[in-house]
TrEMBL record, chains A, B:
The keyword Transcription does not apply. One of its GO terms (biological process) is cell wall organization. Belongs to the Casparian strip membrane proteins (CASP) family. Homodimer and heterodimers. This is CASP-like protein. It is found in: Cell membrane.
Length: 194, 194
């Protein structure tokens, strides 16, 4: 009788230790990723907002004017820059709204629901952010260098401040793109390893 | 004695049926996703290759010329279009190289390794494809509409064929972008549900 009682006791203890070990190890690892995710998300909000604000306030009027019109350049001049301001504002708004889901992932590191939700929407908004950043970058390049073959002249000689401000906005938007990329890779790693 | 033999027998059978049921259900679902992934990947290869080829072969020389030069437009005229051709070729090359990993995901639907590898690289190449597609789109828009404020004239009146071909390449590249987006969402769903 004594031997039959001993066997289930020891197997019970073994089962418990294995279960605790399995919960403690990857839980801490996933919690760390979730905290880094939250911090990076805050940085991406700042980068996207900075890009939208910097582009939206780019406006330069030259000090000389003719009888009929003044020389003025603002983001309104380019459809691409308007798209840039709108889409960067949307991306910043999404990133702010995604912060609660990131907090849920910190509190419950094993739940796949919030991570799945975040990775899918992050991918969609990464595409939006990348497209606006790249299209604005190509216009900024044209403004700096012009194009010989089509006779499009560079405007940055006249509108230096305007060019500097829009270039800064493009750089800031690419920071947001890179952060979103890192967020997706981290979420994928956290989803895949379990 | 007869009762002690009966108990392990029945528990053995139960264990087997549960195990078989667990393997058959999600395995079929994940295998289906992996097969769709493979087919979509083939479509994305075609779209990316078509975009690169169409843009790379866009070249139009006008039938009239002056004493000193001919009027010619090709993808070489724009740095953005050169970037487009190179990056679309890289994306197409990656997609071809990713096909074996997609086949591994079909054969072993439960392995997370290939899916994790694919979702991370897909995200990186989605960003590359989106940036080249968007920057080319903004140049194509300028070629069609021009810009009043900077005195950049539309060139599509003269170079109609060139504009049609580059516009087609941009549309084809956005098809590749959308397919890559769908691939990432599908991989994330397959990784998350288990």
């Amino acid at each position: 009788m004594s031997t039959t009682i001993d066997v289930p006791e020891s197997s019970n203890i073994k089962g418990k230790t294995i279960l605790l070990g399995a919960q403690a190890r990857p839980g801490g690892w996933k919690k760390g990723i979730a905290i880094v995710d939250f911090i990076l998300r805050l940085g991406a909000v700042a980068a996207a907002l900075g890009a939208a604000a910097s582009m939206g306030m780019s406006d330069q009027t030259l000090p000389f004017f003719t009888q009929f019109f003044q020389f003025e350049a603002s983001y309104d001049s380019f459809t691409t820059f308007q798209f840039f301001v709108i889409s960067m504002a949307i991306v910043a708004g999404y990133l702010v709204l995604s912060l609660p889901f990131s907090i849920v992932a910190i509190i419950r590191p094993h739940a796949t629901g919030p991570r799945l939700f975040l990775i899918i929407l992050d991918t969609v908004f990464l595409t939006l952010a990348t497209s606006s950043a790249a299209s604005a970058a190509s216009i900024v390049y044209l403004a700096h260098n012009g194009n010989q073959d089509t006779n499009w002249l560079a405007i940055c000689n006249q509108f230096g401040d305007f060019c500097a401000q829009t270039s800064g906005a493009v750089v800031s938007s690419f920071v947001a793109v890179v952060v979103l990329l890192v967020l997706i890779v981290m979420s994928a790693l956290a989803l895949g390893k379990h």
